[in-house]
Amino acid sequence: MTAQNGERGAGEGEGEGGNELERINPPHLAPPTGFSHAVRAAPGTMVFLAGQTALDGSGRIVGDGIVEQFERALTNLLDVAAAAGAGPSDLAKLTVFAVDVADYRRHARDLGAVWKRLVGGAYPAMAVIGATRLWDETALVEIEGIAVVR
Asked: In Å, how far from its chain's centre is CA 127?
């Protein structure tokens, strides 16, 4: 099935009753790996998810490396999303801030495995941005996002 300026790929368009997120990946662009080029949301309520780091309940950063911190930050983001009524398949847009993008890229396979285990195979529109440092000085990664609750 084609969408405006693109095609829907496998595993895309999850949702109930026709109110779904449609992942759009035009065939003339490079195939996305670990993200979607665009996500179109059917009517719903947008939930803006603040940046989450690898903070534990006492406010300390946990995890020595990028993979451990990514997993904790993503878990925190998913917990916040769930509290707002959104599930993993409702994630429409994520921004990942990394203090060492080269390290993030080196661990892309492991980060992808964490993503698939926690979220599944539906990828939101996503960007990774290098940051000099994050609010929490020992944080290596921060993830913010937008979900659409249907």
From this structure: 9
| C-beta separation of 3 from 20 below 8 A | no
Residue whose tokens read 């983001």: 77
Q: Which of 9-13, 58-62, 67-71 has the highest mean pLDDT?
A: 67-71
Closest CA to 98 of 54, 146, 142: 142
Reduced to 3 states (helix: H, G, I; strand: E, B; else coil), residue 69 is helix
Is residue 33 very low, low, confident or very high in pLDDT (cuts 50, 70, 90)? confident
Strand order in the sheet with 125-130: 45-52, 141-149, 91-98, 125-130
Q: Which residue has the higher pLDDT, 9 or 114?
A: 114
Q: Beta-carbon neighbour count of residue 117 at 10 Å?
A: 10
Q: Strand 15-16 to strand 38-41: parallel, antiparallel, or no bridges (unpaired)?
A: unpaired
Task: Look at 124 and 4; give whichever has higher pLDDT.
Answer: 124
Question: Which of 32, 43, 41 minimizes the C-alpha distance to 89?
Answer: 41
